[in-house]
Write a structure and sequence with these properties.
Elements (H helix, E strand, L loop, with lengths): L7 E2 L6 E6 L2 E6 H4 L7 E2 L5 H4 L4 H8 L5 H29 L2 H27 L3 H13 L6
Antiparallel strand pairs: 1-4, 2-3
C-alpha cells in the first residue's frame, strides 16, 4: 500500500513550522519539534501501513522471527520514528486541548522513554540483535505506543 500521509524531512523545514492540528492552524518553532524528532522524519501518522515507512514483507519477516541484520535495523529505525512522531503528536494535542503545563508535564514524562529508545537504536546500528529490537518495542508498548 503506498504512503497516504505526508512525510517531511525536518531538516528541510523552516525555523518556524506552520501546522494544522485538529483544524487549528498553529506555528511551532523547529527547535521545539527537534526535542522530539531526531530521525529527521516528521509525519502526522507514522504507522507503517499508512506512512510507507516499512513494507509488509519486512514486518512479516520480523514477526516470523527474522534475525537478518537489515530487517532488524529497518524495524528498529521505524520504531524510533514511530515513537518520536507519536510523542510529538500527543504533545501537540495536549498543548491545544489542555495547555502548556500539561503538555510540558507529558514531555517530562516521555523524555526517559525517548532517551531509552534512542540509546537502543544506537546499539542496534552498531550490532543488530533481535533482543535489542524487542526491547525497543517493549519500551514503546509500556507507554501505550504499539508500533507494529
Amino acid at each position: 500500500m503506498p504512503a497516504t500521509v505526508p512525510i517531511y524531512r525536518l531538516s528541510e523545514q523552516p525555523d518556524v513550522l506552520a501546522m494544522n492540528y485538529m483544524g487549528i492552524h498553529v506555528f511551532i518553532a523547529k527547535r521545539t519539534v527537534e526535542l522530539f524528532i531526531t530521525t529527521d522524519i516528521l509525519t502526522p501518522n507514522p504507522y507503517w501501513r499508512w506512512s510507507g515507512l516499512l513494507d509488509e514483507s519486512t514486518i512479516l519477516a520480523y514477526l516470523k522471527g527474522s534475525e537478518d541484520p537489515e530487517v532488524l535495523k529497518k524495524i528498529a529505525r521505524y520504531v524510533l520514528i514511530y515513537v518520536e512522531n507519536m510523542a510529538f503528536n500527543v504533545f501537540m494535542d495536549l498543548m491545544l486541548t489542555e495547555g502548556v503545563d500539561r503538555a510540558m508535564s507529558y514531555f517530562d514524562w516521555m523524555t526517559p522513554t525517548l532517551t531509552t529508545i534512542r540509546n537502543i537504536w544506537e546499539q542496534v546500528k552498531k550490532k543488530p540483535s533481535r533482543k535489542l529490537v524487542e526491547e525497543m518495542v517493549k519500551t514503546a508498548i509500556q507507554v501505550g505506543l504499539d508500533p507494529l
